[in-house]
Design brief:
single chain, 310 residues, Rossmann fold, 6-stranded parallel beta sheet, globular, nucleotide-binding, P-loop_NTPase
């Protein structure tokens, strides 16, 4: 007998599109959010990661936020394992799990499974770490383009963790990470409703700029100073995040210069996110700036809840 699939809503959209704003209007009291954000997992990184407010989290329970210290690694495998653990418990409470976040490869692997890559030996990991430290990120990315151009095209030149991971797989196996097969279809344990939010290009660019300046006004520089006082450096895993790494890359620069760099990097990131999300099959897309489309989105989620959870 076939086991009943677990209903899940997955909310996609680039940084700044308005995913968090939507959460307070969706099925009040009936959903719990599973955060798919690679940096909201870290304690003390609140302003720069745009964590949901304590007020929203009091109304709508959120999971996989504030579960690691900034110096700890957090991988896509950790995310999939922990999301898989928490989602059935949400359903047992009679609530609908909603996976939402901007880390595209977390969402891809949650939906389609992890590639069957072998474990990496400690000496290989140490070798790659030494290479990246001595050669720098630019040279490491150039090396990745040589050995695995497909993975390089999917990874930001500034994403040290994913560059390192792809190089480790190459060193361990002699094969590019992109050659390891993904699952050919969606994971069978989940009954997924995929919804996506988009906005016009110029409006999204303006929202991102306003958001970054608001973070600065709310004390982003002071937050980074507190993290540095706790021992965080440019090599700390949490400090790879946009909004934090710029303080190390522009050491001693005026806040205005740092903020401009954050705006630039966030806009570039949002563009990559949207390109990636557009490749996902079966997404119901809605314009976040059109109230009638948001009403349709809310109705779609309500209908999904009533048919799957009723």
């Amino acid at each position: 007998m076939k086991r009943r699939r677990i209903p899940v809503v997955v909310l996609l959209g680039p940084t700044g599109v308005g995913k968090t704003d939507l959460l307070s209007t969706l099925l009040p009291g009936c959903i719990e959010v599973v955060s798919a954000d690679a940096f909201q997992v870290y304690r003390g990184m609140d302003i720069g990661t745009a964590k949901p407010s304590p007020e929203l989290r009091a109304r709508v329970p959120h999971h996989l936020i504030d579960i690691r210290e900034p110096h700890e690694q957090y991988t896509v495998g950790d995310f999939v394992q922990e999301a898989d653990a928490v989602i059935p418990r949400i359903v047992e409470r009679g609530r609908l799990p909603l996976v939402s976040g901007g880390t595209a490869y977390y969402l891809r692997h949650f939906l389609f499974g992890l590639p069957a890559t072998p474990p990496v030996d400690d000496d290989v990991r140490a070798k790659v770490s030494r290479f990246m430290e001595s050669s720098g990120l630019e040279q490491a990315y150039a090396r990745l383009k040589e050995v695995d151009p497909v993975s390089a095209s999917r990874i930001s030149p500034r994403d040290a963790y994913r560059i390192s991971r792809a190089l480790e797989v190459w060193e361990q196996t002699g094969r590019p990470l992109s050659s390891f097969p993904m699952m050919q279809g969606p994971r069978e344990e989940y009954d997924v409703l995929l919804v996506g939010l988009s906005r016009g290009r110029e409006e999204l660019r303006e929202r991102i700029e306003r958001r970054v300046w608001r973070m600065c006004e709310e004390g982003l520089a002071e937050e980074v100073a507190r993290l540095r006082a706790r021992g965080c450096t440019a090599r700390t895993p949490g400090m790879r995040a946009i909004g934090y790494r710029e303080f190390f890359e522009h050491e001693g620069a005026p806040l205005e210069e740092i903020a401009r760099a954050i705006v630039r990097h966030t806009r570039q990131f949002a563009k990559r996110q949207l390109t990636f999300f557009r490749s996902f099959p079966g997404v119901h897309w809605f314009s976040a700036d059109k109230p009638e489309e948001i009403s349709r989105l809310v109705h779609l989620v309500e209908e999904f809840f009533s048919t799957r959870m009723g």
